[in-house]
């Protein structure tokens, strides 16, 4: 019997277990998935928790309920990958052999990378919302806050879900309006980028929304430290921005397991072929989701599209067939803009977000790069889709893993 081992039972790892158990069956194959956690978090819900839109019960389920019964779930910390020996070593010293290894260990925040960020004001006036604990602490703070300077900040790229900090700023504007205290809150969006987003076309639309909502933007801000005593962030050029509440996205890094195993880059991301999702060093190791170093967005939708293509490639690999170089970096993301509206963006390695309709060309009903209530409903509906369709490896009808060009205004975008 051959062994396929999946590291990580988050979004990407769980999808791969559900895809592959239909194809690699006993007595020929044994599939194992390893994760030390008991809880599976719906991470997009962390954005809504601080504003009391979702409760903890809306975004937490157990890991066990999404793992197929014919897949072995091993609850343990992984100490090291031994790629030259095709083994995984667990924290208790036990070793597992593998014929194929899938790395889906995700990315995590590292506030310790910035002096002062994880200091005495952490979760008092300095918060993150990329963890359940951070989002919950921020919710409790905002419930009783009476106003001041709210600074929403990105430390450096890449980060998980790069639109999430913008969404937070937009939802904060809406939240304080609804509490009839918007005039008591100044909102500043601070980014290391030269504009609101990584893609020029989307930056144009998002900058307009920031202006419309009176959210000030501070761009090209390379943070040097968080000054806890004076409550300000300072960049390497000496620019200082004061805050009463700092909502920051710390440096994101891959799992420390990659450092211990000698398999990661400077940020612990695994060098990966961006078209096949195969490790650049070890042919029988594949990487998907936030764990890889591919230049795609670190978003759940990307992991979803990767999982469908990687399933085919692993089946090619075990049969000794050439891999398909099909993954195009496809990302499809809703951007909450407040007041029950949202944008939808669709892009890949080579095409930036453009206007058009999705998923049906010319029909929609979702409009790309346009604010609408329909897009907002799509964002809220995605939570049900996540728990009931996406995690279980079920294909979402009419949504292809690769980006479709139909119904999108590429010519207009290229001529502008």
Automatic annotation (TrEMBL):
EC number: 1.8.5.-
Annotated keywords: Oxidoreductase
SUPFAM superfamilies attached to this UniProt entry: FAD/NAD(P)-binding domain
Domain FAD/NAD(P)-binding: residue ranges: 3-295
GO MF annotations, alphabetized: oxidoreductase activity
Matches recorded under PANTHER family: FAD-DEPENDENT PYRIDINE NUCLEOTIDE-DISULPHIDE OXIDOREDUCTASE, PTHR43755
EC class (word): oxidoreductase
InterPro entries xref list: FAD/NAD-bd_sf (IPR036188), FAD/NAD-binding_dom (IPR023753), SQRD (IPR052541)
Record keyword DNA-binding present: no
Superkingdom of source: Bacteria
Entry's transmembrane regions: none
Name of the featured protein: Sulfide:quinone oxidoreductase
Extent of the signal sequence: none
Species per Swiss-Prot/TrEMBL record: Mucilaginibacter gotjawali
């Amino acid at each position: 019997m051959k062994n396929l081992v999946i590291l990580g039972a988050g979004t990407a790892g769980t999808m791969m277990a559900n895809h592959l158990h239909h194809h690699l069956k006993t007595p020929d194959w044994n599939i194992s998935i390893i994760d030390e956690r008991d809880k599976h978090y719906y991470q997009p819900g962390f954005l809504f928790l601080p504003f009391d839109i979702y409760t903890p019960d809306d975004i937490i389920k157990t890991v066990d309920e999404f793992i197929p019964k014919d897949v072995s779930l091993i609850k343990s910390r992984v100490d090291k990958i031994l790629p030259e020996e095709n083994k995984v070593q667990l924290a208790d010293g036990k070793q597992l052999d593998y014929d194929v290894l899938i790395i889906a260990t995700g990315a995590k925040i590292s506030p310790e990378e910035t002096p002062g960020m994880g200091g005495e004001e952490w979760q008092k006036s300095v918060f993150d919302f990329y963890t359940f604990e951070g989002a919950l602490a921020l919710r409790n703070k905002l419930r009783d806050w009476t106003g001041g300077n709210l600074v929403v900040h990105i430390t450096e790229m890449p980060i998980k879900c790069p639109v999430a900090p913008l969404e937070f700023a937009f939802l904060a504007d809406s939240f304080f309006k609804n509490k009839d205290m918007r005039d008591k809150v100044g909102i500043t969006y601070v980014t290391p980028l030269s504009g609101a987003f990584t893609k020029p076309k989307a930056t144009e639309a998002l900058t307009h929304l920031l202006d419309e909502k009176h959210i000030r933007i501070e761009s090209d801000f390379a943070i040097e430290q968080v000054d806890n005593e004076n409550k300000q962030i300072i960049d390497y050029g000496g620019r200082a921005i004061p805050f009463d509440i700092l909502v920051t996205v710390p440096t994101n890094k891959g799992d420390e397991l990659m450092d211990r195993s000698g398999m990661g880059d400077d940020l612990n991301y695994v060098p990966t072929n961006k078209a096949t999702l195969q490790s650049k060093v070890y042919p029988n190791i594949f990487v998907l989701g936030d764990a890889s170093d591919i230049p795609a967005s670190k978003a759940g939708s990307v992991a979803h599209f990767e999982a469908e293509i990687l399933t085919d490639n692993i089946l090619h690999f075990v049969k000794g067939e050439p891999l398909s170089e099909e993954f195009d970096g496809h990302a499809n993301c809703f951007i909450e803009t407040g007041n029950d509206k949202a944008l939808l963006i669709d892009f890949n390695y080579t095409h930036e977000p453009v206007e058009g309709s999705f998923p049906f060309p010319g029909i929609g009903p979702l409009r790309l790069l346009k604010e609408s209530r329909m897009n907002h409903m799509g964002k809220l509906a995605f939570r049900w889709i996540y728990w009931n369709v996406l995690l279980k490896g079920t294909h979402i009808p009419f949504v292809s893993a690769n980006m479709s060009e139909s119904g999108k205004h590429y010519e207009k975008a290229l001529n502008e």
